[in-house]
């Protein structure tokens, strides 16, 4: 969805409201995906020489647990607000995705917000113990005997550190 911010600042007297579908399935969020289209709500209202814009959306994020590789599905929410002044539209360092004509790419803005919102490490549960290095099963289901401690020769200069570990 494209929104003409420049025109809205110049002529927008009444608030603008749009509810739209956005397909984010082509994007990769550190290994996670949003396979279904997201319903987003975009609002804009002017207050003299500035515009307050808000963007809200919920998405079902699909990925895999970083420790045990089980599938993970979680809901993430974007709820963001910006105040835009006309001078911001000509600023090359402005953070929102604008083209040279002052059109805001709301779909790209939503993508960027989910990029910040979705954690880079997804876990199936906070106490997930991961996989057994011997058999590859989840540690909670593993029946392997504990790995034997094979003591490598210790540098005598570091022996004091080893004694601290054995406390």
From TrEMBL:
Pfam family name, one: YceD
Organism: Faecalibacterium tardum
Official protein name in the record: YceD family protein
């Amino acid at each position: 969805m494209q929104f003409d911010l420049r025109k809205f600042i110049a002529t927008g007297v009444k608030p603008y409201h749009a509810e739209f579908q956005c397909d984010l399935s082509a994007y990769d969020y550190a290994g996670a995906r949003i396979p279904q289209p997201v319903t987003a709500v975009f609002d804009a209202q002017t207050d003299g020489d500035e515009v307050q814009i808000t963007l809200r959306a919920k998405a079902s994020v699909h990925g895999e647990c970083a420790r045990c590789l089980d599938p993970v599905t979680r809901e993430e929410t974007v709820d963001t607000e910006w105040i835009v002044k006309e001078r911001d539209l000509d600023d090359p360092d402005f953070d929102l995705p604008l083209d040279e004509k002052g059109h805001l790419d709301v779909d790209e803005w939503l993508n960027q917000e989910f990029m910040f919102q979705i954690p880079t490490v997804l876990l199936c549960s906070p106490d997930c113990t991961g996989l057994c290095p011997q058999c590859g099963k989840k540690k909670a289901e593993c029946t392997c005997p504990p790995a034997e401690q094979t003591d490598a020769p210790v540098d005598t200069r570091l022996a004091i550190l080893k004694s601290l570990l054995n406390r």
